[in-house]
Amino acid sequence: MRPFSYDTAAELFPAAIRKKKRAGFAYRRFGTAAEAVRFAIEELPADSLNGAYLQVEEARFDQSGIRSLYESEAFPLERRPRPAAAAEEKADAA
């Protein structure tokens, strides 16, 4: 298996939700997998991420796979600070 490339185009597919007419988001195509991963983790509500999947070339990633890509040291984009981490930084600065 070749290494994952965050520079490859990616597609993010919503979860199939039978009880609702629409999922929390619609299909989206991204210029890079890094942008798709960041969008999935930072922008999607948790219930929309649950069941969604990311397709990068022939590879498919579920919620835990997307989270692993985001948390990887190889992730090339700046991550949004977590609310708890931001509160700790403010307390340390005071």
Notes on the structure:
The chain is of the alpha+beta class and 94 residues long. The chain is built from 4 helices and 4 strands; from the N terminus they run ββααββαα. The protein has helices at residues 33-42, 46-49, 63-71, 83-93, and strands spanning 10-13, 28-30, 53-56, 59-61. It is globular. The chain starts with 9 loop residues before the first strand and ends with a helix. 16% of the residues are buried.
Which band does the percent of strand residues land in?
A: 5-15%
Taken in chain order, the helices and strands follow as: EEHHEEHH
Q: What's the assembly state of these chains?
A: single chain
- The overall pLDDT average reads 83
Q: Ranges with pLDDT <50 over ≥5 residues?
A: none
Task: Give the helix tally.
Answer: 4
Structural class: alpha+beta
State Rg. 15 Å
Give the % helix: 25-40%
Question: Distance between the terminal alpha carbons, to the nearest Å?
Answer: 48 Å
Q: How many strands in all?
A: 4
The number of distinct structural domains comes to 1
Structural shape: globular
Major sheet description: 4 strands, antiparallel
Instruction: Write out the strand line-up for the largest beta sheet, numbering strands in chain order.
Output: 2-1-3-4
